[in-house]
Amino acid sequence: MEANRDKILNMKKLLNYEITTEYENWSVEKFLKSEGYSRHLIVHLRNTENGITVDGKLTYTTHRLSPGEMLTIRLVETERSDTIVPVPMELDIVYEDEDLLVINKAANLPIHPSQGNYDCTLANGVADYYARKGEPFVYRAVNRLDRDTTGLLILAKHALSAAILSRMVAEREIHRQYLAVVSGRLEGNGTITAPIARVDGSTIERCVDFERGDAACTHYQALVYNRELDCTLVSLRLETGRTHQIRVHMKFIGHPLPGDFLYCPDYRYMKRQALHSYCLEFRHPITKKELRFEAPLPDDMKLFIRDIAVPLNSDLRL
User: Fold this and answer.
1) Which member of 6, 99, 128, 146 is catalytic?
2) pLDDT of residue 118
3) Domains annotated on the chain, with CATH
4) Within 13 Å of residue 129, how many CA atoms lie on the same side as its CB?
5) For 193, how many CA atoms within 13 A lie in the half-sphere containing its CB?
6) Which of 124, 194, 244, 299 is least enclosed by beta carbons within 10 angstroms?
7) Is 140 exposed, middle or buried (0-12, 13-18, 19+ CB in 10 A)?
8) Could you read off the pLDDT of 264-299 as tens digits, one per residue?
9) C-alpha pair distances (Å), 309 with each of 91, 183, 224, 278
């Protein structure tokens, strides 16, 4: 078992880059940075046996590249998330390749372990998934969802995809769309630009605060109005990623999400905030292929698009 464990830990990923005239006389370091390698990762490669080679020969990051050369990166994973306990869990995996995972997260499931909850999180389920596959495990959640928010989440499978995807998040190159149910009748579309800050005396609650808040921008489009329940299904797109941004912004304009224990504790129809991350669009960190994923509306939110509901957008496809 110990020998097998060592074999798993020594798994590596090789990346080959054929140098074209575009990169003539570039240093290896400059080229790697242009490909999304972080400074930390480049330092790691310098300290990895045969981590950086050109035409099969060990080289320095100061080496000047020439057209026709083959730059090879040997990425070795030695880090492990040993403190995360593997727990069998049903995972809805929307997409997987050797670089990333896209998971449709269930409700009532935190993405990270925390004090008092070490074994009932998405991280535990992913640890078990990797263990059953016999693969090294480092938990790298790229985008974050609240415990009770359902929908699409990206996990990076190695340090390079993590570095590139994290940069893409920071530069707003990962486009996220949400579906939410809000109280009352909301029509048309609009943009909310209202800064968000932490509520004084609270560690988790946020509010709109035009003096202390961080800039936040949310675009919305009303889709369906349910007359019986007096609720509207809304599509939302974020330009920023502030904590509780959708929940705070919708409350700010008078249409909070029912079932939200912080901002609208109305549990008549939902036992959680009615929020679902239903669409992700981004460029693959390694292949550069454009990707788009959708996750269907969860069953508890389908209540709001029953026959009695009135479509507000003719392009609606749910």
Assistant:
1) 146
2) 83
3) 11-77 (3.10.290.10), 93-303 (3.30.2350.10)
4) 18
5) 1
6) 299
7) buried
8) 999 998 999 999 999 999 999 999 999 999 999 999
9) 31, 14, 6, 20
Per cent of the chain over pLDDT 90 is: 81
Active site residue 146: yes
Which pair of structure tokens corresponds to residue 269?
């129809």
Convert the pLDDT of each residue in 5-54 to its tens digit: 344 445 578 999 999 999 999 999 999 999 999 999 999 999 999 999 99
The per-residue pLDDT for range 98-146, each reduced to its tens digit, is 999 999 999 999 999 888 788 899 999 999 999 998 888 899 999 889 9
Q: State the residue for tokens 């269930």.
A: 106
Q: Which residues contact 3 (CB under 8 A, 6 or more apart)?
A: none
Map residue 206 onto helix, strand or coil. strand
Cα end-to-end span (Å), the chain: 48
**Residue 81 burial (10 A CB sphere; 0-12, 13-18, 19+):** middle
Mean pLDDT of the chain: 91
Query: How is residue 46 written in tokens?
Result: 């310098």
Q: Are residues 89 and 95 in contact, defined by beta-carbon separation less than 8 angstroms?
A: no
User: DSSP 3-state assignment of 49?
Assistant: coil
